[in-house]
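Query structure, 155 tokens:
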């Protein structure tokens, strides 16, 4: 089983943000992180999961996702996102661009979820938080086009 630990952060909501993810399979481990100049915490929580799932090169292996995001876990486990995706107004749903990306990769994986309380000393969750915060505060922040396009006054 592959373990995917994921966390997101924003410094202000919205504000600069970042995600951190750790993929672990046996003795192999990979850290993934990126920062964005303007985004939200929920977007970064979701993006951490998406990027982690997309980075898995062995899609036949089951995945355990460990996250402190009730937003992401509840949306999936309580089947909200699957219901949203069936409705004509899905395009108006918050973070619809990322949810569509999530649904595409999620359908190709066998996934279980485990929620952990954030900032309570869980080593991998704490490391993901560090990665997310460092990326949010770093240089060379990317544009979160899905967020900024919606937040711009031109729309």
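Result returned for the query:
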């Amino acid at each position: 089983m592959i373990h995917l630990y994921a966390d997101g952060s924003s410094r202000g909501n919205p504000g600069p943000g970042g995600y951190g993810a750790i993929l672990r399979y046996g003795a192999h481990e990979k850290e993934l992180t990126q920062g964005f100049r303007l985004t939200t915490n929920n977007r970064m929580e979701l993006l951490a999961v998406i990027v982690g799932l997309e980075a898995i090169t062995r899609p036949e292996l089951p995945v355990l996702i460990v996250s402190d995001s009730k937003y992401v876990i509840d949306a999936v486990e309580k089947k909200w996102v699957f219901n949203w995706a069936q409705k004509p107004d899905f395009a108006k749903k918050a973070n619809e661009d990322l949810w569509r990306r999530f649904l595409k990769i999620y359908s190709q994986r066998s996934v279980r979820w485990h929620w952990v309380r954030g900032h309570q000393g869980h080593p991998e969750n704490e490391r993901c938080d560090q990665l997310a915060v460092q990326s949010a505060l770093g240089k060379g922040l990317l544009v979160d086009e899905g967020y900024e396009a919606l937040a711009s006054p031109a729309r």
